[in-house]
Write a structure and sequence with these properties.
Strand content: under 5%
Number of helices: 6
Largest sheet: none
Structural class: mainly alpha
Number of strands: 0
Order of helices and strands: HHHHHH
Radius of gyration: 19 Å
Distance between the termini: 42 Å
């Protein structure tokens, strides 16, 4: 399902860039979004490496968009921000605490850097996604830990058998 969301979001964002910025402005953001979506979709294979790769790709895209200025749309594009949020939230949820904290800090830094260029809808959307990751990651981690440490409950359909 996440792959469908990524695909539809990339197509929609590319269409919006084509109709507003024109030319080939959509190519860079779409390429970055495709790479980030792919990284997020394979995150189960190696959580730490995929999270680090997502941080590096997003930071690179932001650096390029800041360097080029008004010739390219601002990064991180919406799907790039969503993919980064998925990677960070997943890392916080499943990695050892120290590694999850490093990824969370990296996510904060990568999300804060575009604010240097000023307030925009893109930076606001990326920030909201990162806030969601920073809240949901630990909540899901706690729920996972709780589920693993609690004794199984009896069925509501009948009393436990001895």
């Amino acid at each position: 399902m996440l792959g469908v969301v990524f695909a539809l979001g990339i197509v929609f964002t590319a269409f919006m860039f084509m109709t507003s910025w024109g030319g080939t402005s959509w190519v860079f953001g779409s390429a970055v979004s495709i790479v980030m979506g792919g990284i997020a979709l394979v995150r189960e294979r190696h959580k730490l490496l995929t999270a680090l790769a997502g941080l590096v790709v997003t930071a690179g895209a932001i650096a390029v968009s800041l360097k080029v200025g008004d010739d390219l749309p601002e990064e991180p594009a919406p799907i790039t921000a969503l993919a980064l949020s998925v990677l960070v939230g997943s890392a916080i949820r499943t990695l050892p605490a120290a590694q999850g904290a490093v990824i969370a800090l990296g996510g904060l830094v990568v999300t804060a850097v575009p604010w240097v260029d000023g307030l925009s809808g893109v930076t606001s959307l990326a920030t909201m996604g990162m806030i969601a990751a920073l809240v949901l990651g630990p909540v899901l981690r706690a729920l996972d830990h709780r589920a693993l440490t609690e004794a199984p409950q009896g069925s509501w359909a009948g009393p436990p058998r001895s």
